Amino acid sequence: MNASHMSHFILLVVVIILNVLGHVFLKAGMNKIGGISPAQLLSDFTKVFSTPFIILGLLSYALSVAMYMVVLSRAYLSYAYPLLTGLAYALIILISWQIFREPFSTIKWIGIFLILLGVILVGK
């Protein structure tokens, strides 16, 4: 991997981390709020969007998008997007299992392996 590709990859790792943090913070915030409907999202707008974890989640997403724009200005979309989505998806599954105690199974391990294998193949 040459220096240019390495810098793209490092930037993309930052994007992935910010993207995953966005999901994790939003989930943590919604766990505090509880289940809501689309109508409640609008009627309780201030309550939802003033929750610290929700704010952190939205900020993480905004930074993720900004950094992704930098990545896209330098790297192929066909390289960046599969890497972003594949690695973020695998990390979300693992973090959901560890932090939120969501169910995890052998099938999910196999799925993560296949996702990572796909990411490696697409990145070549």
Describe the structure.
The protein is built from 6 helices and no strands. It starts with a helix and ends with a helix. The chain is an all-alpha fold and 124 residues long. The mean pLDDT is 91. The chain has one domain (3-123).
List keywords for this structure.
6 helices, single chain, 124 residues
List strands and helices in order, with pairings.
Blueprint: H1 3-33, H2 38-43, H3 45-49, H4 52-74, H5 77-99, H6 106-123
Summarize the entry for a quick read.
The protein has helices spanning 3-33, 38-43, 45-49, 52-74, 77-99, 106-123. Helices cover 85% and strands 0% of the residues.
The number of distinct structural domains comes to 1
The rounded Rg comes to 17 Å
**What can be said about the biggest beta sheet?**
none
Number of helices: 6
Class from secondary-structure proportions = mainly alpha
- Number of E strands: 0
**Mean of all residue-level pLDDT scores:** 91
